[in-house]
Design a protein that fits this description.
215 residues, alpha+beta, Nucleoside Triphosphate Pyrophosphohydrolase, seven-stranded mixed β-sheet, 4 helices, 22% helix, 33% strand
Length: 215
């Protein structure tokens, strides 16, 4: 279902205002073990996020899952901002100059069951950038644009987890199943963008306080 133009415009304005509340300072690498990017674009279905379908890799706890561009920090990274920009370039060929502005830190949280500390950044792709794709097929099978509206429709599906096969919340878009860490992060981000102006002081940590942390 395509969002009406009035709603798309409203969300775009709110997004601009929300991003202005985030710090521009590049966080140091000792604050997290890895970094991912909520990379935003604007399509016919409203705000969209660049998502990756990870390749099937033995030993990879996120093998075959939908995730966000990003990865672990490396010794040469001077900040977590450099980590996420390096991973974005290595995975899909998008450079820092292809973004509207340097990405900002949205939140830092732990991925379960590994306990990995993940810095979550947000940034926007310039409208003029059209050519990019998978550069490392051993890690990423394909990329696609996921409309934030797709998160409005949640269904319970069986997934294989560290606890075995259990039913979890999922959002399904064009055959791609979004769940777990990625779903929780995007749900919190979408809710944060949609907050009213009166809730301007509410940050991502306050927003997810009290939310269920079930897989």
């Amino acid at each position: 279902m395509t969002a009406p133009p009035s709603r798309r415009r409203d969300l775009t304005v709110r997004l601009h205002d929300r991003l202005a509340t985030l710090s521009d300072a590049p966080p140091p690498t000792d604050q997290a073990d890895a970094a991912v990017l909520i990379l935003l674009g604007s399509g016919t279905k409203g705000l969209e996020v660049l998502a990756e379908q990870r390749a099937d890799m033995p030993g990879d706890p996120w093998s075959g899952q939908v995730g966000l561009p990003g990865g672990h920090t490396e010794p040469g990274d001077r900040s977590l901002t450099e980590t996420v920009l390096r991973e974005l370039r290595e995975e899909v060929g998008i450079r820092a100059s292809d973004l509207d502005a340097p990405p900002k830190l949205f939140d830092t949280r732990r991925a379960r069951p590994s306990g990995l500390r993940v810095a979550v950044f947000v940034g926007s792709l310039q409208k003029s950038v059209e050519s990019f794709g998978v550069l490392n097929p051993t890690e990423v099978a394909t990329t696609f644009w996921l409309p934030l509206d797709a998160l409005d429709h949640i269904e319970s599906r069986p997934r294989t987890t560290a606890l075995g096969e259990i039913y979890v919340d999922t959002a399904v878009y064009e055959g791609h199943v979004v769940w777990g860490f990625t779903l929780r992060v995007l749900q919190d981000f979408a809710a944060w963008v949609a907050l009213s102006e009166e809730s301007g002081t509410v940050g991502p940590r306050e927003l997810r306080r009290g939310r269920s942390q079930a897989l």
